[in-house]
């Protein structure tokens, strides 16, 4: 039989482990085509090297520069495209082609395609209430049998 303090520690560890696995698995699913398509797998593997359980909670993140850009959205500056090996660009249009010496793509914003925050929000109820449920079970298990029935 374990004491109440040990029950709290065991409940906290169990909750962190389960919460981490739930959120981490959802992030991986989001990076396997649900939110972003896989090109090289670098972003998905980076989540695995950065995310971890810490004494004060859990950490989920990425180090690759484009990961946070996809999570929050980003601005693309105006770009001018010029032909590299020809005199003009050949641009397909309805009924044929047009030729231009350059093309200007206006600045635009790329919408966010978050993959971390939705995974956390999908498990919000467990993150908020799961610890108390596990704690209740652990404390009940740590009490003598006669006390449990009160």
Structure report:
It contains six helices and eight strands. By secondary structure, the protein is α+β, with helices and mostly antiparallel strands. The strands form four sheets. The protein has a two-stranded antiparallel sheet with strand order 1-2. The chain has a two-stranded antiparallel sheet with strand order 3-8. A two-stranded antiparallel sheet has the order 4-7. The relative contact order is 0.20.
Q: Could you describe the largest sheet, including whether it forms a barrel?
A: 2 strands, antiparallel
What is the chain-wise order of helices and strands?
Answer: HHEEHEEEEEEHHH
Radius of gyration: 26 Å
Assign an overall shape: rod-shaped
SS field, number of helical segments = 6
Estimate the mean pLDDT confidence.
Answer: 87
Number of strands: 8
What topology, given as strand order, has the largest sheet? 1-2
Helix and strand topology:
Elements: H1 4-34, H2 42-50, E1 52-54, E2 57-59, H3 65-72, E3 74-76, E4 79-81, E5 89-93, E6 96-100, E7 103-105, E8 108-110, H4 117-122, H5 124-142, H6 145-148
Antiparallel strand pairs: 1-2, 3-8, 4-7, 5-6
Helix pairs in contact: 1-2, 1-5
List keywords for this structure.
alpha+beta; two-stranded antiparallel sheet; two-stranded antiparallel ribbon; 8 strands; 2 domains; 6 helices; 150 residues
In short:
It contains 6 helices and 8 strands; from the N terminus they run ααββαββββββααα. It has helices at 4-34, 42-50, 65-72, 117-122, 124-142, 145-148; strands at residues 52-54, 57-59, 74-76, 79-81, 89-93, 96-100, 103-105, 108-110. Strand 5 and strand 6 (96-100) form a beta hairpin.
